[in-house]
Amino acid sequence: MSLSFEKAKVLNPKRSSDTTTNRVNWHDYYAGYSSEFAYAILSSIGLNKESLVMDPWNGAGTTTLAASAIGYKSVGFDLNPVPVIIAKAFKISYGEKPSIVPLLSKIINKFKVINIKYDSNDPLRLWFKEDSSCYIRALERSIQYFLIQEQKGKYVFIKSNVNLVSEIAAFFYLAVFRVVRSLIGQFQSSNPTWVKQPKDEHSKVSIDKNSIRLAFVSEVNAMLENFDPVFDNSANAESKLFIGNSLNIQCEKNSVDFVLSSPPYCTRIDYGVYTMPELCVLGLFKSELDNLRRSLIGSTTVPKNAPASSVEWGEVCNSFLDEVKNHPSISSDTYYLKNHLQYFDLMFSSLLEINRVLKKGGACTLVVQDSYYKDVHNDLPEIISQMGNNLGWSLAIKKEFPSLFNMSGVNPGVKRYRKQTDATESVLVFSK
After folding, report:
1. pTM
2. Which helix (H) or strand (E) holds 80?
3. CATH code of the domain made up of 5-91+229-431
4. In the predicted model, what is the mean pLDDT of residues 153-165?
5. So which domain of life are we looking at (predicted)?
């Protein structure tokens, strides 16, 4: 297989706020690129129909959905179970639409009569008062009763087995996610990736069972109104979704033809906290949530002993780390240095894994964004480029796009160090 880099169509990856009436409207996943971007590059770069496309940070499944629509087999991994559920919901067959309303009726009828014994450890108690948490858990258990027989009465992700959740079950779980998000809207901070927690029991949400029923029905109906597939014409090729770690990709050596992904940016976004409401619906307890947060690349948590820097990370990366270490601001040479060392160590290790599974002659396309530590430029696109070069990859395409909205803009403290908060999003296409 010979890829046609000169014919590759590279669009701006930024998602538009258009008025489409398809599934794109089901969930606004912050850490994603547009379906148009994914479809354009996958369909223009010269892959053949036997090609395998892989995304190690698959998120809500844009890569695997686009690959499937074009006709390529695909596999997607994410360490966080929430986006895996969302990606499964997006895959639901249009032919399932007539079965949604009858299933909704069954779920609601079960919800009306089911009684859940109060569990003080239920993660939903973070935001909801006792009765309210029981009602939401009753709704989740009603979905389990009809659609997840093996796990009846248990928390879905106690064993992190995503195969227990069918696409139609994922559809209804996504509706519950939407209900919970709407109910705790008062706790959304100015940072779109951070959800605050109530200060005390009095501040928690109280809602009656009938109101939850009405909210759930409303969300399902809204999703039905936007049930059209993301892509008009779909070849519906096989795509597999797994809970998986980019440090240990469950693919054979030299088995992947094309990688398309957007790794977590080095902007200290805590994706564990970002999806905490949904993780609570799935029943992840605090200890499990803490473990997940520590495992995610870009986590705000840091290890006691940070990894050492490596020459393999490249000159730009190591120069940046030196500037962080020597910065006069508080904790620069302790917490923030450890945080960045951890990020670059995990990122390079992930690139090593991608290199292991990627075929000779294959390609890896990554969407990355630069940022700043205080007034120090973190040129992540150049850092990733140098890491790729040290793996023996060639940078075939680099396209830059301005990113006017980014996390710097929501942090008022940034203006102490620089006036501009613009960032640049780069599409890097590597050839192996």
Report:
1. 0.93
2. none
3. 3.40.50.150
4. 68
5. Bacteria
